[in-house]
Amino acid sequence: MTSLFSLSLALLSLSFLTTAVAASEFTFHEATIESIHLAFAQNRLTSRQLVDFYLDRIQTLNPSLRCVLEVNPNALAQADEADRLRAAAAGGNGTLGDLHGIPVLLKDSIGTDDKMNTTAGSYALLGARVPRDAFVVERLRSAGAVILGKASMSERYSLRSPQMPRGWCARGGQGVNPYVKSVNPCGSSTGSAIAVAANMVTVSLGTETDSSIICPADHNSVVGFKPTVGLTSRAGVMLISPSQDSIGPMSRTVSDAVHVLDAIVGFDPRDEATEEAAKFIPMGSYKQFLREDGLNGKRLGIVRHPFSDYKGSTAASIFDQHLMTFGSKGATLVDNLEIENIDIILKPSRNGEMTVLRAQFKHYINEYLGGLSNSPVKSLAEVIAFNSNNPDLEKMEKYNQDGLIAAQMTSILDDDVVKAQHRMTKLSEEGFEKLMKENELDAMVTLGSNAATIPAFGGYPVLTVPAGYDDNGMPFGICFGGLKGSEAKLIEIAYSFELATRMRKPPLSFSTEFHYPYYEQSYGTM
């Protein structure tokens, strides 16, 4: 960890064990947004206490898990303000949102106009200033959330080098799976998943182009939700692909993910994709779709090949049990469906995706870097030069930057890029879209996270829910994919499945139970 990270923790992390008087207790372990708000309402918890707890967890666990790059030096001040506003609201002076006082971690590619950095895991952007908060951060702040810090990620979305393992970045090192330390935690929203899994924050935000929310959520036994492209604005976020990138929540429950989703969706004039997607946002909120009977009447397409083959017999057996649960809850299963050209879709060397993403990355990273102030680099070419000139800082002795160099040599106007885009569109139309429409499905259902690539090409939503653990204790999830704007159906299905199975278990090595006695803050009781 950097000295900046250590200094921030030293300034912020308080000894929350020293100020306590016996009273009713609140259980931090696996706390949900609903349980936190109940404790707030019953004067058994303050936002400051909650932030204190997570800061202590980060200080204790992060040297092992390497999932947080830096904490927000203003986090405690934000918590105090949340507590002040809650006290005022209790006196009849206003109402508060679902995320009021709730700590949130942000992936390190999501811009914040504050004292924190936004670097995509690289030293090349350390000290650079963004022009404004990302739109989703503006929405979180408006909802009263406490921005706890920046989560680690696969450096530059793993585009730096094909040799680089998922979950590694120069600033933070290798992120560690809290369930099976020897297993890759997956990426690129690695730290966002690990921190939620290990109870180092309530919820987090990740970004996904292809599998970057779904895969780390699956591997670290948390809920991951990639919304329809455009449902959440990408303005202020380092972008790879305007047709595939989406910002979404990671949490320990479907309900918590939905609370976050409600806060961050909406039209943003700085992201034209949000204008088209805004028509999908329901009247009221997405919380109305948290229905225990949400599986009843749903038509689910089960795609086994090749996804069940990847996970082993134990996972496949548990998957079959879950399919029986779907049926018992009133869903109709259309089993053993196959996706046309699946072998091509799942191979970046054949589907054209990497050709397109490298070219788009170059174009949009140059645009993003040009809007920064006080930045050591202003273009992808300068990023490459920075890395070459700082081999020790950027750990160049471990992983090269062949991926960045390849991206620098591209253009979004190249013939091979245009042809690759057409190929991806055709694969999506003849594959996922055809599967969903011809079988009149509400969702595609697969074991594990590998299927996230299939809806990625068309900018479709995907939601993964913890579904079990293999013989080695490695988590796996069930992945639900739908057509554009089908978030309501996916929420109903996933929430009903979660309530019926309750498969998530915290990682044993990092699951110390703790109860925090209530104590009076300086402003008195609420």
TrEMBL record:
Keywords from the UniProt entry: Signal
All copies of domain Amidase, residue ranges: 50-490
Keyword Magnesium in annotation: no
Pfam families: Amidase (PF01425)
InterPro entries found in the cross-reference section: Amidase_dom, AS_sf
Domain of life assignment: Eukaryota
SUPFAM superfamilies on file: Amidase signature (AS) enzymes
UniProt signal peptide: 1-23
Protein name: Amidase domain-containing protein
Organism: Eucalyptus grandis (Flooded gum)
